[in-house]
Amino acid sequence: MIKLKLMAVFFGSMLINSFLFAEDLSSLSGSFSLSNGMMVTVVHDNQSPVVSVALFYRAGSIDEVGGVTGVAHACEHMMFRGTHTYPGLQFVNHLKKVGAIYNAGTDRDLTVYYEKINRSDLGYVLSLEADRMRNATLDKDDFDKERQVVIEERRLRVDDNSKELFDLQSYATAFLTSPYRNPVIGWRADLDEMTIDDVQHWYNEWYVPNNALLVLVGAVTVQEARSLVEASFADIPRKDLPVRKSQPELPQRGARYFVLELPVTFSMVSLAWPVPSWKVGVPLIDTVALQVLDYILGGYSGARLNKELIKRRKLVEYLSIDYSPVSRGPGLFKISLVARDGAQLSTIRRVVWSLISDIQTQGPTEDEVYSAKRSLYARHIFDQDSLSNQSFDIGYFAMSGWNLAARDKFYKSFQEVKKEDVQRVAKKFFQRFSMTCGELRPVLNRDTSKHSSESMPSDEYNEEVLNG
Q1: What is Dmax (Cα atoms) for the chain?
Q2: Phi, psi for residue 169 in degrees, rounded to 5
Q3: Backbone angles phi, psi at 52, to 5 degrees
Q4: What is the pLDDT of residues 68-109, one digit of tens each?
Q5: Hey, which residues does 31 pair with through a beta bridge?
Q6: Could you read off the pLDDT of 351-361 as tens digits, one per residue?
Q7: In the record, which residues are listed under signal peptide (predicted)?
Q8: Could you give the 3-state DSSP secondary structure of residue 118?
Q9: CA dist list (Å): 205 to 69, 195, 241, 373
Q10: Which tens digits make up the pLDDT trace of 149-162?
């Protein structure tokens, strides 16, 4: 056992040292900005003649206002409907012509468009992205068709997906004032009433160079990138951005709970707590310690929740933990569990709370913390093998206000976490009064659109949630 641990230390040190050494040598990487405010980050990775292109806009569902939820995602869809230069499907066909692997994504904090291409096509693809930034067509007839595509996407991914509905209800209950309570895809009523003018307004406000970050990872140097980026983007004028209202989440003053009844054949339970994500004024060690706690509770097959609920007691079929250490909005640490047939949700909830309470009183073991730190850092190291993963990681940190140096500091700080840090954040943030509990219960052969008193938590349920 001692030999194995020494080998792990040696191997882990090799990983860290080789990665840092490679970065220190790389004078071919760097960041720069254009005169119009557009930011560019280049990471030179010459393992193959490929470049990952990721254009981030700091505009996600957190920036939406009431009545137009889902407009960020709808606008993303419309960006593939052509530009004035390349109308209709011509834009997409030009990407296909060079064999680009392309897609886009919208989440709470951002929208990103990405391509993986041959390095020789970089200038061409950048010119296409620049054209999309300033010349999107946004035709009403196209939007009417695309809106139906989005509504169908919502139906398949959310309305007909009981686990997604449960997740949606969890966020809508845990957050009362933050826009994080809204689904990224939007509320159905807002999608039904959305117009092309809503999308045009969103595009005009946020799709500007001084709200964008271009991340290039692969067989390109910062010098090569600068000339290509300037040729495509430098003449796009900057615009004044709308004032972003902070819309902070109010402090939680008591436990919250909900019951969702659907015609399903399984049950679920969730427990969530408001926790910090890394921002100015938030101690970095708290955020990293929460990630270590995430790993200790459910990050691998031998983690505490997995071992107790899945293997030993056989109460749970599957579990997951959702925590984003870097975000623009408030953080949430959410545990979701799918119960096995016959398992009582109240029993599962009590076991989860008892395992968390044990960490609060006894703390994790040294071995647990050691394993978590090494595994989390190794995961980051192995992600460097993917150009796209590097691009997305850099972009997500940047959209939350952190540059490359801060990102490196974040990952290196795993080594500083002690068992006392994990115990401290467990005590500080995992309180009964700040907990949001949810249950998904199966209801067969009943019209769930009609209100039923059975859906309301009983006094006994309230007492059990509060007292474990």
Answers
A1: 68
A2: -65, -35
A3: -95, 125
A4: 999 999 999 999 999 999 999 999 999 999 999 999 999 999
A5: 41
A6: 999 999 999 99
A7: 1-22
A8: strand
A9: 16, 16, 6, 41
A10: 999 999 999 999 99
Q: Tell me, yes or no, whether 456 lies in a domain.
A: no
214 and 264 both lie in a single domain: no
Q: How many CB atoms lie within 10 A of CB 205?
A: 15
Q: What is the pLDDT of residue 155?
A: 97
Instruction: Give the Cα separation of 431 and 275 in Å (integer).
Output: 11
- Regarding whether 399 and 270 lie in a shared domain, the answer is yes
Q: Which of 326, 322, 237, 239 is nearest to 278 (CA)?
A: 326
Tell me: do 130 and 48 sit in the same domain: yes
Contact 184, 61 (CB under 8 A): yes
Final residue in a domain of this structure, among 169, 204, 234: 234
Indicate whether 263 and 229 sit together in one domain: no
Place of tokens 């795993």: 414
Q: Does 248 reside within a domain?
A: no
What does each C-alpha distance from 349 to 253, 267, 339 come to in angstroms? 21, 13, 11
Is residue 387 a contact partner of residue 50, using CB atoms and an 8 Å limit? yes
Residue 359's domain spans which residues? 256-442
Domain with 104 in it: what CATH number? 3.30.830.10
CB 133 within 8 A of CB 212: yes
Query: How many domains is the chain built from?
Result: 2
Domain contains 463 = no
Whether 388 is covered by a domain: the verdict is yes
Distance between CA atoms of 2 and 295, rounded to whole angstroms? 23
Cα gap 102→100, rounded to integer Å = 6
- In a shared domain, residues 215 and 317: no
Same domain? 222 vs 281: no
Q: Are both 33 and 135 inside the same structural domain?
A: yes
Judge if 283 and 207 occupy the same domain.
Answer: no
Strands 111-118, 50-57: pairing is antiparallel
Cβ-defined contacts of 159-163 (< 8 Å, 24+): 159/188, 162/262, 162/264, 162/440, 163/268, 163/338, 163/440
Place of tokens 């041959």: 118
Grouping H, G, I as helix, E, B as strand and the rest as coil, residue 316 is strand
CA 241 to chain CA mean position, Å: 24
Enumerate the β-bridge partners of residue 116. Answer: 52, 101
Q: What is the pTM of this model?
A: 0.89
Query: Residue 320, SS3?
Result: strand
